[in-house]
Amino acid sequence: MLTLVGRTLGRITMLTTALAGLLVAFQVAIVAIAASLEGDEGFTRLAGLAPAFLQQVLGPALTSFAGLTSLGFYEPLIVLLVVEFAIYLATEPAGDVESGLVDLVLARPLPRHYVVTRSLLVMTAAAGALPGVMALGLWASLAWLAPAGAAWPEPRVVGLLVAHLMAVAWCFGGAGLAAAAWARRRGAAQAAIGVTAVAMYLLDFVGDAWPDAGWLAWLSPFHAFHGAQILSESTHAARDLSVLFGLGALGVALAYWKFQRRDV
């Protein structure tokens, strides 16, 4: 097991480091922008320029220093980046089948589930590490760039944002793991779940921005992760996290069930 995990970590170290650096740089940029808006009614002007639907989606991020510096945890591109990376890591079992590596692994007296467990461990670690690095980048950026007297985000709120970002990444990572247990090519599994994740995000966005189609948002797992509601403390964190982790656990269970029975 450790050999399998080590092999995967060796292959993704540079990519993971680059992504972590990108996320930290984004946090620094957001804090710098927020610092430039602090005072002189900068946030009042920003909120006045934003259309109504954008104010609904971003919420307090447009109205305060603490809100804007928390935006990175639920900004669409950042969320999808973390989600897609989790999907990429979770679909490695299909890559092992495609390359024939699984034949070499299973030729030894090793449990078949090791292949799935390896990817589950790495995916879970990445889903937690990237939001964690973002949080560290946020606090470091605040200590460096925050104007004197500016109200920082509450640690409890940042913790909830980190937990939700990890949960939604793990949710789709579990789906990716399930797809990999069926697929014979990694690209097919990754594309299927990756495109589905983007479609689900757009579905949630349309449902929120268009009242007549509000019911569509309930079909998307992203409906359980609304950063604006977390900032305004109008969300049900326990319920939403349970939904996301529950969906992910269902995908993981399907992956173990199928991989134990498939012909590799």
Give a description of the structure:
This protein is an all-alpha fold and 264 residues long. The protein has one domain. Helices cover 77% and strands 0% of the residues. The chain is built from 13 helices and no strands. The protein has helices at 2-37, 42-49, 52-58, 65-69, 76-90, 92-99, 101-106, 114-145, 155-182, 186-209, 214-217, 227-231, 237-261. Helix 5 crosses helix 9 (155-182) and helix 6 (92-99) runs parallel beside helix 9 (155-182). The model has no long low-confidence stretch (mean pLDDT 86).
Keyphrases for this structure?
264 residues, 0% strand, globular, mainly alpha
Which percent bin holds the helix content?
over 70%
Tell me the number of helical segments per DSSP (H or I, 4 or more residues long).
13
Main β sheet profile: none
Q: What do the pLDDT scores average to?
A: 86
- The stretches of 5 or more residues where confidence is low (pLDDT under 50) are none
Instruction: Tell me what portion of residues adopts beta-strand conformation.
Output: under 5%
SSE pattern, N- to C-terminal:
HHHHHHHHHHHHH
Shape: globular
**Radius of gyration using CA atoms only:** 20 Å
| End-to-end gap | 19 Å
Write down the domain tally.
Answer: 1
List strands and helices in order, with pairings.
Layout: H1 2-37, H2 42-49, H3 52-58, H4 65-69, H5 76-90, H6 92-99, H7 101-106, H8 114-145, H9 155-182, H10 186-209, H11 214-217, H12 227-231, H13 237-261
TL;DR?
This protein is mainly alpha-helical and 264 residues long. 77% of the residues lie in helices and 0% in strands.
